[in-house]
TrEMBL record:
<dbReference type="GO" id="GO:0020037">
    <property type="term" value="F:heme binding"/>
</dbReference>
<feature type="binding site" description="covalent">
    <location>
        <position position="101"/>
    </location>
    <ligand>
        <name>heme c</name>
    </ligand>
</feature>
<keyword id="KW-0249">Electron transport</keyword>
<dbReference type="GO" id="GO:0008121">
    <property type="term" value="F:quinol-cytochrome-c reductase activity"/>
</dbReference>
<protein>
    <recommendedName>
        <fullName>quinol--cytochrome-c reductase</fullName>
        <ecNumber>7.1.1.8</ecNumber>
    </recommendedName>
</protein>
<keyword id="KW-0496">Mitochondrion</keyword>
<keyword id="KW-0812">Transmembrane</keyword>
<keyword id="KW-0408">Iron</keyword>
<feature type="binding site" description="covalent">
    <location>
        <position position="98"/>
    </location>
    <ligand>
        <name>heme c</name>
    </ligand>
</feature>
<keyword id="KW-1133">Transmembrane helix</keyword>
<dbReference type="GO" id="GO:0006122">
    <property type="term" value="P:mitochondrial electron transport, ubiquinol to cytochrome c"/>
</dbReference>
<feature type="domain" description="Cytochrome c">
    <location>
        <begin position="85"/>
        <end position="192"/>
    </location>
</feature>
<keyword id="KW-0813">Transport</keyword>
<dbReference type="GO" id="GO:0046872">
    <property type="term" value="F:metal ion binding"/>
</dbReference>
<dbReference type="GO" id="GO:0005743">
    <property type="term" value="C:mitochondrial inner membrane"/>
</dbReference>
<keyword id="KW-0679">Respiratory chain</keyword>
<feature type="binding site" description="covalent">
    <location>
        <position position="221"/>
    </location>
    <ligand>
        <name>heme c</name>
    </ligand>
</feature>
Length: 308
């Protein structure tokens, strides 16, 4: 039974093979259908994974924090870039509000030049802070006004001092915070604007504040963004949501200062490589033309059958 089946399969296969050699039509059709089905499956499963990833809600909101809403920041769009007026306002918010507790060690004054401020403006801002430098000729450290090459000033001398001033909690360095948190800009915007009364039955420990977006719900940082907490020089309405949006844009720039340039290079690379691909395909078509268009005909010599 088995051998017979095997023989039939073999026969079928050889028939198929000879069919394929006589004409390509049948197998090409099957091949195309198979390719179509597999491409459709791949695209379909990719799309459903993307959809699930974008739209999934957490099963445990309390432990993981409330899922932040998707906010239309321009830099999130495929070809969108930073709103630089917003970065400028955001830095003002950081300087006047957040810098009281948070450091920003990876951002130097010079980084702000031509991004949100002119060089003179940055020099002037930096010189308002005192930095320890030295040693001088006598071996002593001395204080001098800040320069373009200095980093953002730190609010606390060390981690212990920071914890002591914040009921044991450490205000994290904000240089890379939009990259360091799940949900990025949306999470930080929601966190800053999401403070509310704890729901019935939820106890928040002394010194902590209720915020549904913070994993666990109780955060050591108190609400510090309110309507009118900063005064914008360009006359932008200083509502809490505007202030939060601007500081989040600034934090996003600090974490990804290369974003604008990266997208510009991306567009150039796509244009360049797609035209190179088109040229390569065209050349290949020319080179392969003789091979692809030829037809091999075998004329058996006379008495061929007899000789073999
Ligand atoms: C009075 C001090 C203080 C000020 C002012 C302050 N923060 Fe905080 N911040 C903290 C502390 C303390 C924590 C740590 C909270 C914790 O771990 O419970 C924190 C944590 C954070 C976190 C991290 C939350 C997380 O998911 O871990 C972000 C983001 C943040 N602050 C942003 C800001 C921004 C933006 C501002 C300015 C608008 C600001 N903070 C102003 C004290 C402050």
């Amino acid at each position: 039974m088995f051998s017979r089946n095997a023989f039939n399969t073999f026969k079928q296969a050889s028939q198929n093979a000879s069919k394929r050699f006589s004409t390509q039509a049948g197998s090409a059709k099957t091949y195309n259908t198979l390719m179509g089905v597999s491409v459709a499956t791949a695209v379909g499963s990719g799309a459903s994974l993307y959809y699930l990833n974008k739209n999934s809600a957490y099963a445990n909101m309390e432990a993981d924090g409330l899922h932040p809403a998707d906010h239309p920041f321009p830099q999130k769009k495929l070809l969108g870039t930073f709103d630089h007026a917003s970065i400028r306002r955001g830095f003002q918010v950081f300087k006047e509000v957040c810098a009281a507790c948070h450091s920003m060690d990876l951002v130097y004054w010079r980084n702000l030049v031509d991004v949100a401020y002119t060089e003179e403006e940055v020099r002037e801002m930096a010189s308002e802070y005192q930095y320890t430098d030295g040693p001088d000729d006598t071996g002593d450290m001395f204080e001098r006004p800040g320069k373009l090459t200095d980093p953002m000033p730190r609010p606390y001398a060390n981690e212990e001092a920071a914890r002591a001033a914040n009921a044991g909690a450490l205000p994290p360095d904000l240089s890379l915070i939009t990259k360091a948190r799940h949900g990025g800009v949306d999470y930080i915007y929601s966190l800053l604007t999401g403070y509310c009364e704890p729901p019935a039955g939820v106890e928040v420990r002394e010194g902590l504040n209720y915020n549904p977006y913070f994993p666990g719900g109780a955060i050591a940082m108190a609400q510090n963004i309110f309507d009118g907490v900063v005064e914008f020089e360009d006359g932008t309405p200083n509502t809490a949501s505007q202030i939060a949006k601007d500081v989040v844009t600034f934090l996003n720039w600090a974490a990804e200062p290369e974003l604008d340039e990266r997208k510009k290079i991306g567009v150039k690379a796509l244009l360049l490589f797609s035209s190179l691909t088109a040229i390569a395909l065209w050349i290949k078509r020319n080179r392969w033309h003789t091979m692809k268009a030829r037809k091999i005909v075998f004329n058996s010599p006379k008495n061929w059958q007899k000789k073999n």
